[in-house]
Amino acid sequence: MRRLALPALLVAAIVLLALAAPLLGLTDPVRQDVARRLASPSATNLLGRDEFGRDVLSRLIWGARTSLVVAFASATIACLLGTLLGLCAAWFRGIGGILALGSTDIILCFPPVLLALLVVTLLGPGAFTLILVLSVLFVPGFARVTYGEVLLVRALDYVEAARAMGSSTPRILLRTVLPNVAGPILVQLSLAVAAAIVLESGLSFLGLGVVPPSPSWGLMIRGARTTLEQAPLLLVWPCAALTLTILAMNLLCDALRDVADPRSAAALFSKRS
After folding, report:
1. Do residues 30 and 63 lie in contact, with contact meaning Cβ atoms separated by under 8 Å?
2. Residue 190 — very low, low, confident or very high, per pLDDT cuts 50/70/90?
3. Of 32, 55, 174, 256, which is the most exposed, with the fewest CB atoms less than 10 Å away?
4. Residue partners of 140: CB distance under 8 A and separation at least 6
5. Could you give the angle at the alpha carbon of 71 between the alpha carbons of 195 and 65, nearest 5°?
6. What angle (nearest 5°) sits at the alpha carbon of residue 175, between those of residues 172 and 179?
7. Which residues pair with 144 in a beta bridge?
8. 251-269 tens-digit pLDDT
9. Residue 256: left if φ>0, alpha if ψ -120 to 50, beta else—which one?
């Protein structure tokens, strides 16, 4: 539990800071002041102003809301759909399971950027489009991780005991199988959240994600690129926020895996004893 404390506090601090953005009395993140463009950090603007004179700190915190909402929403949707597909495919096997898992292979045939281009062309850019694209991209990873883990545990003694006791299939899957494969799924979830933050920033950087002038870390990096020589710090702030957030997410879910996975807990206990 001690290992869980530090990453949990980091992630909680980042999430709470993003959620509290309306309560912090920040400058309007889309308000321009061209006369003060590229202003250096000061007491009134702690991180300075960008190429349009907008407050960098305000855009950084409000941009965190966009990145985190897109990341958590897309990763959660993909986790639910992918876990369900992998669970059913591994448990029931047969042609239905093969088709359920094989259908995700079609998604892997499309490079992420090309798939994003296709969806954006059909639906237009925006946060909803990003959530849709990222959810589809992450489903195969969750399905394959769940499929492999369920195949390992479906013939173990405690699963056979649950069958012998007459437990229904949904009860076995939800109460017996799923808790014992939760560790790898949590790790995959951490990777999906971190990857979603990076992809959201990358797609926004390319003009395929969040629509300007809405704040986004990707849009901040895009704008900072054009003024790199005059104000190099404008590139540092969003990149530092991305790095810290991704690192905190990965540390948190690694710790959650050790706490939630019974096999990891048993191994740790036997090592100590």
Report:
1. no
2. confident
3. 174
4. 82, 104, 105, 107, 108
5. 130
6. 115
7. none
8. 887 777 777 655 554 444 4
9. alpha
Q: Residue 24 contacts by C-beta under 8 Å, 6 or more apart in sequence?
A: 61
Compute how many other C-beta atoms are within 10 angstroms of the C-beta atom of residue 5: 10
Please give the Cα distance from 129 to 121 (Å, whole number): 10
Reading phi first (left if > 0) and then psi (alpha if -120 to 50, else beta), residue 38 is in left
The CA distance from 255 to 247, in Å, is 12
49 pairs with which residues across the strands?
Answer: 55
d(CA 19, CA 37): 27
Closest by Cα among 116, 142, 121 to 200: 116
The radius of gyration of the chain's CA atoms, rounded to the nearest angstrom, is 22
Q: Has this prediction a pTM greater than 0.90?
A: no
Tell me: the pLDDT tens digits for 89-140? 888 877 766 777 777 778 878 777 777 778 877 888 888 888 988 898 899 9
**Contact at 8 Å (CB) between 224 and 238?**
yes
- Sketch out the chain's domains with CATH numbers: 57-263 (1.10.3720.10)
- Residue 205, Cβ neighbours under 10 Å: how many? 20
Q: Which two tokens stand for residue 152?
A: 């390992």
| pLDDT score of 77 | 95
